[in-house]
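CATEGORY: protein folding

GOAL: derive structure tokens
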Amino acid sequence: MNFLEHAVELDWRHSTIEAVGDVIEFWGFKRNQGRVWAHLYLSTSPKSAAELQDELGMSKGAVSMLLRDLEYWRVLKKTRIPNRRAWLYSPETNLKEMIGRVLRERELHFISEVSETLKKAEADAKAEGVDPIIVSRLTKMRIFADGMKKAMDLFITGAQLDLRSVMDVFRPTKAIVAHFKTKRRK
């Protein structure tokens, strides 16, 4: 490979690693977690922590912490080759499985909690005799959260997704229609 070919490879490789780091940071993880994973993903062989340090320009402590984090999320594999002291790391290459696992363990759990909170708020509001318009809005929020939960679960399992029930949230409810009919009569 000549100098120009090497420079072009470094450019696309660097921009890809940085882009993945940006996406991972946007999702609320550490930017360097994305950079380490992308660097491994674009490599043809496993890398040691020392190689990652050198190739990504990170400190030993940072690489060690990032590798631990990535192991926790199971987005890389740690192996040891006979006659070699250092652990070697390779990426999880099944993107759907990897992203699905993170969605299941983090986002789906969060959405489930929100859905339960909204369900309780809706029941409490009804029990307290809150204005039907407000109860209707709580119902819409709960239905939307339930729909998001179903959508995420279906995405994770790979099933077909029918969003009609979620889209119904945006249609006026009987309570809203009745409220505005009453206001017009006055």
